[in-house]
């Protein structure tokens, strides 16, 4: 992998701001799964486990930084600001800024369009720092070597990039129903999972998107949907018409039925009691193979 000499330690020092204790962790953080490297026990050796750990640690650190930076701000604001920093596009750019893209080891067969490789390596690097040096070192790295050099927190907070949140906010304001469906999952040429999601507004297709994660595909679908509701008046007419019909149908369905009954002689004709029968074998839970996240505002 890497040569364990002064040059290797110096390279990591220039990135981290401190020398590694266990440099093999940092080397593993830069090993893409396509390298097919094996450990001494014959197990695949790559950065996926470190990426998993780093993802969680990064969320906590950025939440910590944002919480202290924006005193008095509400949870929604803090969550959106954090998501802008830890989103894949931002992590990819940060990885390139600190030179990780030149250090990642991967198979030459891996396609150059693999847009998430650098961001994954960045998360894996955070995981390596956490195991090697602990939370405080991770926080130091993010604050001193990343935030101060590359990220303007105030500017990031003002930037609107969470299309899914914006779309949900728009549907709530306009009292319409939006849902996100995972419609397809497949593998690319390098066996990386690809997800395709669709946004439905009042049951009408508003946009589709693909990505290397479900979140990314939903964001891309939401971006297309936002553009459609902002630029296509005819689509808006269809959406509001569908919403109107849904509300009218709900009103009719909830209205009490007028019934005329003939009571046998001798029974109390003033009784207005009704009995609702529920089939005990009826399954009231709707099951589907598709993953659906639905956001609804009652009208």
TrEMBL record:
It is an enzyme of class 3 (hydrolase). It is found in: Cytoplasm. InterPro entries: dsRBD_dom, RNase_III, RNase_III_dom, RNase_III_sf. Residues 9-134 form the RNase III domain. Its EC number is 3.1.26.3. It catalyses: Endonucleolytic cleavage to 5'-phosphomonoester. This is Ribonuclease 3.
